[in-house]
Amino acid sequence: RSFCDIIIDTLSELGVLTSFHEPDNIIINGANQKTLGNSGQILRRNGLIAHGSTRYRLIDLDKMLDVLKVNGHKLRVYKNEIKEILADVYSYNPSIKKDDIKETFISKFSERYKGRFIHEDLTSEEYSKLRSFINEESKEEWIIGKNIYPSKGVCYFFLNSKNKQLTPYTINK
Questions:
Q1: What average pLDDT does the segment 103-122 reach?
Q2: N or C: which end of the chain has fewer CB within 10 A?
Q3: pLDDT, the chain, mean
Q4: What is the pLDDT of residue 53?
Q5: Residue 119's pLDDT is what?
Q6: Do residues 153 and 79 touch, judged by C-beta distance below 8 A?
Q7: pLDDT of 110 higher than 50
Q8: Left if phi > 0, otherwise alpha if psi is -120 to 50, otherwise beta: which for 81?
């Protein structure tokens, strides 16, 4: 929720009225509530990796549904339903630019966590750690043969004032 709140504060400052909806959704307020973004995290013994997302412009839903997966399977079977519940910033207010969102988010994030944003290239050691992490997270075992995934897949979308868990497939080996 903490990460979503930063995104909500960012969008609010830019005039996009959103709110948090359990478990991890950012929704556009109003009569026709739609999901605009969400967050996710991986908890480990020695740290936390968190991310949040906001759709700026939903241009190619087919590509998005090919990338996002539940239990390793594409979400294309839900295309019509998903199309009805997704929002994007551009449709809400086309005068808001991506850079506006980025700069405002960096400011809000830095404020919240008492830090400062520094843009520079990764060191060779950081690249090595990143590649190791990517190799580990990309292993096929993460998405095949498991019913519950601690950090993979898209599982929830905001639907009709309730969250609906999308689990269209069960993998049997």
A1: 90
A2: C
A3: 77
A4: 82
A5: 83
A6: no
A7: yes
A8: alpha
Higher pLDDT, 148 or 51: 51
Written as six digits, the tokens of 156 are 């929830």
Q: Which two tokens stand for residue 132?
A: 């190791």
Is there a contact between 104 and 16 (Cβ–Cβ < 8 Å)?
no
119: three-class secondary structure by DSSP: coil
Q: What is the pLDDT of residue 89?
A: 93
Closest CA to 24 of 34, 35, 11: 35
d(CA 106, CA 119): 11
Task: List, as one string, the DSSP characters of 5-66.
Answer: HHHHHHHHHTT--EEEETTTEEEE-SSS-EEEEEEEEEEETTEEEEEEEE-S----HHHHHH
* 13 burial level (CB within 10 Å; 0-12, 13-18, 19+): middle
Closest CA to 86 of 64, 113, 69, 102: 64
Higher-pLDDT residue of 92 and 44 is 92
Give the contacts of 155 (CB within 8 A, at least 6 positions apart): 70, 165, 166, 167
